[in-house]
Amino acid sequence: MKYKNILLTGASGKLGKAIATFHIFPSLLTPSREILDITQQDTIKKFFDNNNFDAVVHCAALARMRECEENPTKAIETNIIGTSNLVNAVISKERKSGKKIRFVHISTDGVYPGIKGNYSEKDETVPYNTYGWTKLGAECAANSLSNFCIIRTSFFDPENIKFDDASTDAYSSKAPISYVVKAILTLLNSSFIGTINVGRERRTDYEHYKEFKPKIKKCKLLDIKKTISFRMYKDASMDISLWKKIEKKNETNKK
Ligand SMILES: NC(=O)c1ccc[n+]([C@@H]2O[C@H](COP(=O)([O-])OP(=O)(O)OC[C@H]3O[C@@H](n4cnc5c(N)ncnc54)[C@H](OP(=O)(O)O)[C@@H]3O)[C@@H](O)[C@H]2O)c1
């Protein structure tokens, strides 16, 4: 393991909890929002001054699409300004210590337009809702660091699929949360710098969920659109070939 002490933001969230409970990451610092609020520069400074870490896995965000549409100010403050605050604190800590900090930023497939699918990392990013735009703003901040990895992904908890139907005409590369947790660890330890798509092969949402919830029923994207107030993707699938190469290299190295 390359990094001994890792700061995990958003540890109480869906992904953060999975990272912490998998016990595959060494020495995690998991401050609550009360201790480290990314929108409050003074709490970030206090935490950074009092704790030592050589890597950050940044999961904290306003990640609910509906909430981002209803409260764009909070989405901007959390996702864009919050991430910028954190990045500035990392730069400042690097300057003080003379050591580089590895920064893994969790982004989303929602930075792509969600129309044609099979998006590669080099494709144009034109998000289809407020959540996606604010996550794209967060990526801009992360790109200012020297040792960063931006992971564009989409995930679900196979043991907690809440809905009873899923669409047969919306496509994505979403992956079970455990798959994404392992990918984060691999990329954290890798020397990869830049932006990378992480997920599984393109499938309909129905197919993704049916694997884990066999009784799930089929529906159409139009049925889902009628029940939500924000824009959805038609095809958010990603070209995952770069990730597959790194994953394969990592498996070969383990043998
Ligand atoms: N869910 C998905 O399918 C999905 C897909 C692609 C990418 N992502 C990205 O993956 C990451 C994790 O998503 P998730 O589903 O785990 O989100 P989540 O369950 O909504 O958790 C969000 C986390 O961020 C924390 N947080 C929010 N505002 C904060 C602030 N001002 N300061 C400090 N912490 C704050 C929350 O703390 P509290 O508990 O105190 O609220 C919580 O721990 C996010 O960056 C998200 O954009 C998610």
In words, what does this structure look like?
The chain is an alpha/beta fold. It has one domain (6-254): Rossmann fold (3-Layer(aba) Sandwich), CATH 3.40.50.720. It has helices spanning 14-22, 41-50, 65-70, 72-97, 130-142, 177-189, 205-210, 221-225, 241-254; strands at residues 6-9, 28-29, 55-58, 102-108, 148-153, 155-156, 165-167, 171-172, 175-176, 194-198, 203-204, 217-219. A six-stranded parallel beta sheet has the order 2-1-3-4-5-10, sandwiched between helices. Helix 2 (41-50) runs parallel beside helix 4 (72-97) and helix 4 packs parallel to helix 5. 40% of the residues are buried. The structure holds NADP nicotinamide-adenine-dinucleotide phosphate.
Highlighted features:
alpha/beta, Rossmann fold
The strands making up the biggest β-sheet line up spatially as: 2-1-3-4-5-10
Q: Give a list of the ligands.
A: NADP nicotinamide-adenine-dinucleotide phosphate
Q: Profile the largest sheet.
A: 6 strands, parallel
Helix content: 40-55%
Number of domains: 1
End-to-end distance: 16 Å
Contiguous low-pLDDT stretches (5 residues minimum) are none
CATH topology name, in short, is Rossmann fold
* Class by alpha and beta content: alpha/beta
Spatial shape: globular
Instruction: Please tell me the overall pLDDT.
Output: 96
SSE diagram, text form:
Elements: E1 6-9, H1 14-22, E2 28-29, H2 41-50, E3 55-58, H3 65-70, H4 72-97, E4 102-108, H5 130-142, E5 148-153, E6 155-156, E7 165-167, E8 171-172, E9 175-176, H6 177-189, E10 194-198, E11 203-204, H7 205-210, E12 217-219, H8 221-225, H9 241-254
Parallel strand pairs: 1-2, 1-3, 3-4, 4-5, 5-10, 6-9, 7-12
Antiparallel strand pairs: 8-11
Bound molecules: NADP nicotinamide-adenine-dinucleotide phosphate.
